[in-house]
Amino acid sequence: MYDIRRRAEARCRRVTNGAVPWSPQIQNFWDRQSLWKLLLKGRKQCRVSSRKVRRLMKKTKLPNAWKKTTVGALRNDRKEYLHAKKNHTVSWRKEFLTVQVKKSKKKQWTSRKARDRFLRLRRMKQREEARRRRRAQSKGSTGGLQAIQVEEQLPTGQVDLRTLTDRRQVEQGCMQENRARYDQTRSPYTTPPMDKPLYSMFTGADAERNSHALLEGRLPMPNGIDSYTKSFLEQCRFQQGHSMIPMEVSPADHTCFWSRNPENKGSEPHGLHNGHFKAGIYSPMVAQCDALFRHIPLTTGFVPDNWRHLMNFAIAKKPGDFWLTKMRTIQLMNSESQANYKKLGRLAMAYGEEHHLLADGQCRSRKHHQAIDLALSKRLVWDLLILQRRSAGWISNDAKSCFDRVVHWVVVLAMMRLAITWNALRMMFDTLATSTHRVRTGFGDSEESFHPPSMVPFQGCGQGNGAGPPIWVSVSSVIIQMMTAMGFGFQCLTAIDSQLITAQRFCFVDDTDVIKVGKSVEQSGEDICHSVQQAASTWAGGISATGGAINPEKSFWWLIDFVWDSREGKWRFRQTHQLLHDHPIQIPGLTGELEALHCLEPDEAEKTLGVMLAPLEDQHAHVAHLKSIAKQWAEQVRSGHLHKYDVIPLIKTTVMKSLEYPMVLTTLDDATWVSIMSPVLQVCLPTAYVGAYLVTWFSPLSNCRVWASPIRLVLRCLNILRSCFATCPTKQKLGRIWRLRFKNTNLRPAPPLDSSIRTIATRQFWRQILGSKESRKSWRTWISTLPRSNKNSSSDAGSSDELLQRSGLLSKDGQQSIRYVEDSHGSE
C-alpha cells in the first residue's frame, strides 16, 4: 500500500515557483521579451509560430511590433525589466494578492470552489508576508549543519576546538556525539535504574508482572538500592479505584488528528510523510486502513519494521556555536508512530489533570499554564518572604539532557500510573530501543548508521517525540510528590481568608527551583543551611533515580536572610560574607562526584524562564536585558531589506512580544520604556516613512492608565500615523510643516479618535481642502486660519467649521479633537 501511494505522489504536479514574485506587470515584461525574441528569431530566417506571435502581440497590445527595431526594443525592455525587478516586484505582488483576496472574499460563500480559492489566496499572502519578514531579520533557511567543532588535545596538553567541514568528518562526529549522548545513563558512571537488581527486574521476562506489583504496592523493595531510589519507587502507586484507559484508534479519531496536524512537519523518510495521511482522510477506505495500521501496534505492542528508523539532526542552541556537546539533537520519527505517541501523551495528561495526579509545581505541557505565570509565582513568594522576614534557601538547578537520559522502565512506571496500558508503552519503547539511527546534515542523509555500543539499548525518549513533554511531566510529578512527602517546601497563610498555601517546587521542564523555608522568623540562615542541603540532595537523588543528573554549571542558589540596619532603621538582605560560617551546597555532578553550587548575592540577578530574577528586585538587570533584546533586533532589521508596509506588523509580532513578556514582573516608568524602545524606533520609523519627532508629540505616555502598556500606546500611535499618511496624496508637501497631537488617547477597544483619523485620511477630504481657496495660500497661512484648541468655536466660522465637523476634526459641541502645531521654530 505504501508503494502505491508513493507512485501516486510521483505523478502529482510539482509547482515550481521562481525567484521573482509574479504579478501582471512582471508577466507583461516577460511577454514582451518573448515577443521580441520570436520576432528576432524570425528575421534570422528561423522557424517561428505565427499564431504564437499574433497572440503575444494581442496580449502585449503591440499590434505594430513587427515594424519596430527588434534588437533595440529588446534591449530597452530588458533595462526596464531589471529596474522593475529590483524596485517594484514585491510591491506589485503585494498589491496583486491584496486585490485578489478582496475580490475572492466577496464571492467566498457563492460556491465551495470560491471558498477554497479565497482560503488559498489568503494563505499564500500570509506566507509571502511571513517570508519577507523572516528575511528582514536574517532568519532564512540555514541549509543544515555543514560544520562542527570538536575538542582536540594539543601537544602542550591544552584542549582546543577544531572546526570540521568535510562531510564524512561531520557525520562521524555527529554519530559519535549521539552515541555518547544516548548512553549517558551508563557512562561515565552507571545510574541507579541501570544497575542491578532494578534493571533486570523491570526489563526481563517478568517486567510486566513486577511493574503491576510495584504500582499496586505488592512488590517488596529489593536490597542494595539507595534511599532516594527507594523513596521514588514508593511514590509510584496506582490511585484508589484505578482503571486503565482503553486504547483504540477509530477512523474518526484518525481523521480528527490528521485534519489538525500540519503537513509541513518533518518525519523519518523511510515512511510516508504527513501529506499522505492528510490526503488519505478524504477517502473513507484509506482512512480506515490507516487507522487500523495505527490501532494494531497500539493495542498489541507490535512494532512494524518501517517504524524502526530514527533520523537525528543537530541544531545550535546559540547562533554560530557549532560545538557538538552544546548542540541539541532532534529525532525525526515515523509519522504513524509519532501520531500514536502524541495520542498517548494527550490521554495521559487528560487523565492526570482529571484525577489530580500531576504536581502543581510543574507548568510545562499543561493547559492554562505559562512560563511567565511561574516566574510571577516565584516573585510573589519572594515578596512574602520579605514581608514575613523568613530565611530560606532557594536552589535553581537544571537537569542535564532530561529527554535523552530518562530510563525506559522508569517512564513505564510513571505513565502506567497515569492509566496508560502496558502494550501501548511497550510499542513505544520497543521502537526506540530497537531502532536504527542515522544522521542528517547540510550534506544530506548519511548512508551509515549507528547502534548502541553494547547489548543494552539506548535510553531516553528523544527530543522530537510527541509524548516527550508529557513523559517528563509524569516523571517529575513523582519526584515532586516524593519531596512533598519529606516535608520540603514553603507554607504560608493567606492574609484575607487564612487558608494554607504550599509551594514545593517551581518546575518548567528541566528548570527547577527547590525551596526550603524556615518555620519561623527566629530561624536564621545558618539554622536552615543543613535543611537546604538535604533538599538539594533529595532532589538530585530523585533525578538520579530516573537516570538523569544535575548540571552544576547551570545551577546556583540564594540564601535569603535578613539583618537589621540600625543606621537607616530598616531590615536589609543579609550578604553572604556576613554569615558566621561558610555553608556550601553540594550535589552530585555529571561525573558522579560532589560539586559545590555557586552562591549568589540576593541582589544578583540571573536569567531564568527568560526573565532576569533575583530575591531583591534589580531593575537595572531588567532594563539591560530588555535593551539588549531591542538592540539585537534593531541590528538584524537594519541589515535586512524591509518594506514600509511590513514595519508595523514586524514590530508587533517579533520584538514587541519579547518586550511584553516580562512586563508583569517589572515596574519601569515611561522614560525607561522610551529608552528601551529607542533603538527599535530609530531603525523602523524612517523605513515606515514616519518622522521620529512625531512619536514624541504623539504618545502622551504620562497620561496612559496604569494597566495600559506604554509600548502598546506607541504602537497605536504608529498605526494611526501610518493609516493617516498612507493614503494622503500630499504627504511629500507636508514634510515638517505641521504635527499632530491627540488630546485624549486611551486604549479602549473602539476609541472615537480612530474613526476621526480614518475620516481625515480619506482622499475625499484632501481633495476638498486642495480644491478650495485656501490651497492658493501658503500652508502657514492656511493653518493659522484654523480654530485654536484653546478657543471655543464661534458660530460665524462658516463652512470651515462644517468641514471640520464632517471630517471629525471638530466635534459637535465645538471642542477640537486635534490641534495643529507648526514646526519647532514656528509658533502654535
Q: What does this 3D model show about the protein?
A:
- Among the domains are: 24-136, no CATH class; 619-821, no CATH class.
- The chain is 47% helix and 12% strand.
- α10 packs across α19 (468-485) and α14 (335-354) packs parallel to α19 (468-485).
- The termini are far apart.
Entry keywords:
five-stranded mixed beta sheet, disordered C terminus, alpha+beta
- Shape annotation: globular
Rg, alpha carbons: 34 Å
Strand content: 5-15%
- Mean pLDDT over all positions: 81
Region (Disordered): 124-145, 807-828
SSE diagram, text form:
Elements: H1 2-10, H2 24-43, H3 50-60, H4 70-87, H5 89-106, H6 112-136, E1 148-153, E2 159-164, H7 167-181, H8 198-203, H9 207-215, H10 227-235, H11 251-260, H12 274-280, H13 284-300, E3 309-316, E4 327-332, H14 335-354, H15 371-388, E5 392-398, H16 402-405, H17 408-416, H18 422-433, E6 436-441, E7 444-445, H19 468-485, E8 490-493, E9 500-503, E10 505-508, E11 511-517, H20 525-545, E12 556-560, E13 562-565, E14 570-573, E15 586-588, E16 594-596, E17 598-600, E18 606-608, E19 611-613, H21 619-639, H22 647-653, H23 655-660, H24 670-687, H25 692-698, H26 710-726, H27 731-734, E20 739-742, H28 752-760, H29 763-770, H30 779-784, H31 799-807, E21 818-821
Parallel strand pairs: 3-6, 12-17
Antiparallel strand pairs: 1-2, 3-4, 5-11, 5-12, 6-7, 8-9, 10-11, 13-14, 15-16, 18-19, 20-21
Helix pairs in contact: 2-3, 2-4, 5-6, 10-19, 10-20, 11-13, 13-14, 13-18, 14-19, 17-18, 17-19, 19-20, 21-24
